[in-house]
Design brief:
5 strands; 7 helices; 5-stranded parallel sheet
Length: about 140
């Protein structure tokens, strides 16, 4: 079964750090409904490093995560152009990496799962679920 969702780094953090909405992410991972963007791998590594995780721990956590992720999508020219459109059409500034991750979701017809307030600025072409509203 193809994935339904694309996880933003904030969604992975919610799951692995026990934050609100983490149970929803865990359920999606268990059901094998999740894809990620290659940028999420990099952001997730640095997020866990900021939380004190050592490289060996990171590799273990990433291996566990990767087993549950159905697919990893790269940033290609189409996704890059969509990211430009998202940053241009959004009603507030969206960080570049997040615009690329959102564009990756849109390009592959996936619903973005996140816990970042700035994603409220996404244009309607990007389907998204804010974990803060799911956890409430």
């Amino acid at each position: 079964m193809p994935p339904s969702y694309l996880l933003d780094t904030s969604a992975l953090a919610a799951h692995f750090l026990g934050e609100p909405g983490g149970d929803f992410v865990a359920d999606c991972l268990r059901k094998r409904q999740v894809a990620i963007c290659t940028l999420t791998i990099v952001e997730f590594h640095f997020l866990l490093k900021r939380h004190g995780m050592k490289p060996a721990e990171w590799r273990r956590v990433w291996a566990l995560c990767r087993e549950l992720v159905v697919s990893v999508h790269a940033i290609d020219e189409t996704v890059a152009n969509l990211a430009v459109e998202i940053r241009t059409r959004g009603n507030a500034r969206i960080p570049l990496a997040d615009a690329c991750i959102a564009a990756c979701a849109a390009r592959h017809g996936l619903t973005l799962i996140h816990a970042d307030g700035h994603f409220a600025a996404l244009p309607p072409q990007v389907k998204a679920i804010n974990l803060r509203t799911v956890a409430s």
